[in-house]
Write a structure and sequence with these properties.
The structure holds 2 protein chains of 2 kinds.
Chain A lengths: L6 H10 L4 H8 L3 H8 L7 H11 L3 H4 L8 E4 L9 H14 L24 H14 L10 H10 L2 E6 L10 E6 L4 E7 L4 H16 L1 H5 L3 H16 L2 H13 L3 H15 L3 H14 L9 H13 L4 H5 L7 H12 L3 H12 L3 H8 L3 H14 L1
Helix pairs in contact in A: 2-3, 6-19, 7-11, 8-9, 9-11, 12-13, 12-14, 13-14, 18-20, 19-20
Chain B lengths: L3 E5 L1 H7 L16 E5 L3 H6 L2 H6 L6 H7 L7 H20 L6 H13 L3 E2 L3 H9 L4 E2 L1 H10 L5 H13 L8 H9 L7
Parallel strand pairs in B: 1-2, 1-3, 3-4
Classes of the chains: A alpha+beta, B alpha/beta.
Amino acid sequence: MSKQLNIPLVSSTAEAQGLTQTAIAAQLEVTKAAVSKWLTGKSHPRPPELLKLGKLLGLGYKDLTIESKAEPLIAFRRRASCKTTPKHINRAKAMGRCLEPLTSYLDFDPFLAPGYLKDPNLGYEYIQKLVTTLRREMNLSDHEPIGFKDLINKFRDQQAVLIPTLWGKKDKHENALHIYLSESKTTWIYLNLDSEIHDFKFWMAHELAHVLSVNLLEQDQLDLAEDFADRFAGALLFPEAAAKTVYKEYAKARSDRGRTKVLMETGSEYTISPNSVYQELKQYAEVHEQPFTELDNKVLFPAINQFNKKFPTLSEHLFDGETPSANSFMRVAQEQFDTHFYKALGEYVRKTNAPPSAISRMIDVPLLDARAYHEALTTAG
Amino acid sequence: MAQSKLLVDSNSYFRLAQNIHPLLSTPFGKEQYTLYPHEDLTFELERSPRLRTKFHWFMEAGYVENRKRKLQLGKKDRAAIQDNFDHIWAYIQDEQLNPLEVDTRILAAALQLEIPVVTDDRDMREVADIFEISWISSMELMKMMLDANHIDIEKIRQVAAQWRYENEWPYGGWEKEYSKLFGEKPPKE
């Protein structure tokens, strides 16, 4: 991409700091004529000179140069205990930029773009109606648990690219990452398979909400997008009708132990976290003005931890607790998630001779891991 | 005499450290060349079960101890390194170059501290050249060690044999450079 020096900003900053062209030249150890050429657009500083100029003026690369491309849009799932920092966002944007060349290798409908929601909002009734409609499209009743395949098919319908990864166990919000590239109108969703199996389903439903409400990301309504995605996920996995039935059992329970038992059993039945069940019951009671006995966090969270310990992570489940080879990982990812990401990546790597470092940046794995992927992809063709 | 510091990237570390031990913080030669790792070295390994299996020796006490001494960086240096990183990383993304974030952090540090990087990564070298950061390869490092009688040719043969055995080449055509530097062909295994 050809870049231009942001001459108005550079000139005004230099002037504000009392730096003449001669002074700049002296500091940067270049000739005054060179600086003059930069500031009249006749030439562009070389990278080391631009870096020094930025340091001298206190300007970053993005300020010094004029940006022309649209930036990738990012959605991180928020967690109370974890802030999304600019570092997280920049890293995700960098990954997004790397994905752009892959778009021409995707096998989606070349003519039709998927639809999105007209007016995504946080109203309980609105979200319940929405999830009922989606469940009908999936041929599911209000009481039936949603399977992973149901969600995967929906992603496929929405032309979203799933990227299963093995990022190790993460406590924070790094188990899923949503990137939307507005130029190619493509959505890319990273899913960390090293997640607890019950949380994983929630992450998927959460990401599906972002796909359906991409307009919120485009309008930079990130808080609303996150709140909507959380509420949508809870409702889709455990809708009002199911909450109504389980609420009765929960209300009947006479002790915290009895109440957590209801949450655990329902979580098991629906393959969702007991916490999701709890939140949906609480919301149901609130909307319908029913009494609700809250559980102390000291009771609820240890019970959820115990519950999670009984189940393997998704990757342990898929690979029998072994670390898979790159080949076996990509094969299983493709089969289980109906994703053509690794196929597209393979075609891209073979056609462009992209090095392992390109893979490392796209899927955020260490270079030595990326080499294993690279070898598997280049020998597969 | 003051040390001449060198910053080693993770791949070069993995290629050399098992056989040339202790690799780090051990001055050699008249110039007192001393290798230091980057802070992200351990982080790289911790996030990959595959790497932990492959480089099982990494967590052995002797190696852990040897990695303990890090470059001492003051506040001013850290801030300048971060500025360098932000700039170089943005440039890399703009130009769609291939070095990784972790590699860029090494380059940013090397630029600020004006010390060479030991790397075999051609993408990293490309950016190092663009920003006028000096670098040497793992083999050039071994040659410096050999010339300073820090290691002998047997040790170098042992390292090269392991590269061959593990399919862990520094880059295509490394054998040619090996022959040029050491005056003999690399061992078979």
